[in-house]
């Protein structure tokens, strides 16, 4: 089957990585092409990874849907000057594609370019009630989509509200989940993997590190921030982070790393992951990958679908730096419990996140063979 995957950006954090995992699984049985609303970043490996699979990537600038999402800024307009444009590209791909998969709400504005194809949305974001034209968006999607996949229960509830046929299909890691032994400790290493956005909780985690500094130093613990390139002093968040570290003297605890294309290797060097974002969504890609490698997670939120509090990680109130500080200090002191929590994390992941099984779920939506909830 000829499948076209549309996305806002092929290298945009968890959404881009999730799409590549899916495309890699389905490329063995289907002819796949990808359409991105933003051009690939030359410093990232996504374009080369698709090329290695023989999957063409096209760029077509187009405005995103006018929605605001929990935990992240509204996507930038994809019609910025200077981007390459091929106005007839969607029509050309429409003539080629038999089914079209829209990787998240931002690219769903491309739906009208594909009037005859089967159209499936992967609902990767939680849309806020204050979004402009929220109800009109629901009507638009219900009229044009054949089905949708929700990556979690909250996304599924929004699809149900709009009356869109759907199934819950979780994201998956690159490889089948299994427990990987933890590195020797001390030092106990906590890992935070995130894009540089204000909503991701960098400030909350930094304040928690300051609050727990005495305990972290006593137990030789380190907190590694991935996605923070210290050389990018032009970025306002980088400047704020560097200034905070200089003022507080936390350089011995907080370690900064830039973007990594080898997330798995970086996570395997950690003992525990931290997810401090203000939205309190403990079901994102970084959590899935951590659990799949046998790494427990300290996260904010209340949904126990992935993280079972006190078993494979901890769930804390969003925005509470003092609760996070206490959790970091307690985990650093009693790090021997991390192996058992890691084994339970891997067991949870094995039951939920197998890449072959979950890709087959998306495939069944694209081929029209899946049963969905209204």
SSE topology sketch:
Elements: E1 2-7, H1 13-26, E2 31-36, H2 46-52, E3 57-59, H3 89-96, E4 99-103, E5 118-123, H4 134-144, E6 147-150, H5 153-162, E7 166-168, E8 188-193, H6 202-211, H7 213-218, E9 221-226, H8 236-248, E10 254-257, H9 263-268, E11 272-275, H10 285-292, E12 297-300, E13 313-316, H11 321-333, H12 338-352, H13 355-367
Parallel strand pairs: 1-2, 1-4, 2-3, 4-5, 5-6, 6-7, 8-9, 8-11, 9-10, 11-12, 12-13
The rounded distance between the terminal residues' Cα atoms is 26 Å
Rg over CA atoms: 21 Å
Mean pLDDT comes to: 90
Shape descriptor: globular
Instruction: Give the helix tally.
Output: 13
Helical fraction equals 25-40%
Structural class: alpha/beta
Largest sheet: 7 strands, parallel
- The helix-strand sequence is EHEHEHEEHEHEEHHEHEHEHEEHHH
Query: Strand share of the residues?
Result: 15-25%
Strand order of the largest sheet: 3-2-1-4-5-6-7
Low-pLDDT ranges = 78-84
Q: Notable features of this structure?
A:
single chain; about 375 residues; alpha/beta; 7-stranded parallel beta sheet; globular
Outline of the structure:
This protein is of the alpha/beta class. It has helices at residues 13-26, 46-52, 89-96, 134-144, 153-162, 202-211, 213-218, 236-248, 263-268, 285-292, 321-333, 338-352, 355-367; strands spanning 2-7, 31-36, 57-59, 99-103, 118-123, 147-150, 166-168, 188-193, 221-226, 254-257, 272-275, 297-300, 313-316.
Report on this model:
There is one protein chain. Strand 6, helix 5 (153-162) and strand 7 (166-168) form a beta-alpha-beta unit. This protein has 13 helices and 13 strands. It is an alpha/beta fold and 374 residues long. 36% of the residues lie in helices and 16% in strands.
């Amino acid at each position: 089957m000829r499948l076209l995957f549309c996305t806002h950006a092929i290298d945009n954090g968890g959404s881009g990585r999730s799409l590549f995992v899916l495309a890699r699984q389905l490329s063995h049985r289907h002819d796949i092409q990808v359409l991105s609303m933003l051009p690939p970043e030359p410093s990232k490996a996504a374009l080369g990874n698709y090329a290695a699979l023989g999957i063409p990537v096209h760029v077509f600038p187009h405005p995103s849907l006018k929605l605001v999402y929990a935990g992240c800024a509204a996507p930038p307009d994809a019609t910025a000057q200077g981007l390459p444009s091929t106005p007839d590209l969607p029509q050309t791909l429409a003539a080629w594609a038999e089914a079209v998969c829209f990787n998240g709400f931002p690219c769903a504005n491309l739906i009208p370019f594909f009037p005859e194809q089967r159209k499936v949305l992967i609902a990767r974001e939680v849309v806020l009630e204050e979004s402009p034209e929220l109800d009109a968006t629901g009507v638009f999607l219900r009229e044009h989509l054949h089905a949708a996949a929700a990556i979690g229960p909250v996304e599924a509830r929004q699809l149900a509200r709009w009356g869109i046929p759907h199934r819950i299909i979780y994201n998956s890691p690159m490889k089948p989940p299994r427990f990987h032994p933890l590195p020797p400790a001390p030092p106990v290493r906590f890992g935070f993997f995130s894009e540089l956005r204000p909503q991701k909780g960098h400030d909350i985690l930094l304040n928690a590190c300051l609050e727990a500094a005495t305990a972290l130093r006593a137990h030789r613990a380190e907190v590694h921030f991935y996605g923070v390139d210290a050389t990018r002093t032009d970025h306002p968040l980088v400047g704020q982070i560097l200034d905070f570290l200089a003022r507080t003297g936390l350089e011995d605890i907080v370690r900064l790393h830039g973007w990594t294309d080898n997330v798995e290797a970086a996570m395997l060097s950690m003992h525990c992951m931290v997810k401090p974002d203000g939205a309190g969504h403990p079901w994102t890609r970084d959590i899935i990958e951590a659990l799949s490698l046998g790494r427990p997670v300290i996260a904010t939120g209340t949904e126990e679908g992935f993280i079972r509090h006190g078993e494979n990680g901890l769930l804390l109130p969003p925005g509470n730096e003092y609760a996070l500080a206490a959790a970091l200090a307690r985990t650093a002191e009693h790090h021997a419990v991390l192996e058992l929590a890691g084994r339970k994390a891997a067991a949870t992941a094995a039951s939920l996140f197998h890449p072959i099984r979950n890709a087959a779920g998306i495939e069944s939506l694209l081929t029209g063979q899946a049963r969905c909830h209204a």
